[in-house]
Amino acid sequence: MKNIKITLLCTTLALASGSASAGWLDFLNQGDDAADTVKNTTTSINNTVQTGQAINNASQTGLIDTLVKQLGVSQTQAQGGTGALFQMAKNKMTESAFSQVSQSVPGMDGILAAAPKPQPASATGNLLGTLANATGNSTLMNAASVVNTFQQLDMSKGMVSQFTPIIIDYVKKNSGELTSNLLKTALTGL
């Protein structure tokens, strides 16, 4: 009988310690599961941040690269022509309206600085400039200045009408139709 009591006591202790061990193992396994969840969440967040950075980087170079690819112009021509068009828009727009446009184009200050300084105009530019000055029409004066800039960049005056819709579309994709309409209005007459 004494042996049976000892056997029962040992069996009970073994079962109790087995249950206690199983509880600790479950607790430890839950810790591992939690660590895996944290690791997976961190990886997901890092991937999302990297994707966002890639999209941001693509939008920063997107306008000039788009012009180069679609129109077959050089990087210098794309930057200078875009700078000339934005400079004209800036001259015609209110400060707050141009600020909205600027926010949709990363690196606007660099683009504006890329526009060549005005030089003596060609025969086409002189004719347009003379007509603009004679009539006092600021839209014609701005157009003459842009044509002159494009010619300085070894592009024809016809390239102005090819740049304009691409730039307006880019602004529309980045800031919406309202901002692109502000720019479109400022570039009217080219």
Describe this structure in words.
This protein is mostly helical and 190 residues long. It has one domain. Helices cover 84% and strands 0% of the residues. Helix 1 (2-71) crosses helix 2, helix 1 runs antiparallel to helix 7 (158-175) and helix 2 (75-92) packs antiparallel against helix 6 (138-152). The longest helix is centred in the N-terminal third of the chain and has 70 residues, at 2-71. The protein starts with a helix and ends with a helix.
Please summarize what this structure is:
The protein has about 190 residues and is mainly alpha-helical.
How do the strands and helices of this protein lay out in sequence?
Elements: H1 2-71, H2 75-92, H3 95-103, H4 108-114, H5 123-135, H6 138-152, H7 158-175, H8 177-186
- The termini sit apart by 111 Å
Shape: globular
What level of helicity do the residues show? over 70%
Largest beta-sheet details: none
Please give the domain count. 1
Secondary-structure class: mainly alpha
Low-confidence stretches: 44-60
Q: State the total count of DSSP E strands.
A: 0
Average pLDDT number: 75
Radius of gyration: 34 Å
Tally of contiguous helical segments: 8
Order of helices and strands: HHHHHHHH
Beta-strand content bin: under 5%
Keywords:
8 helices
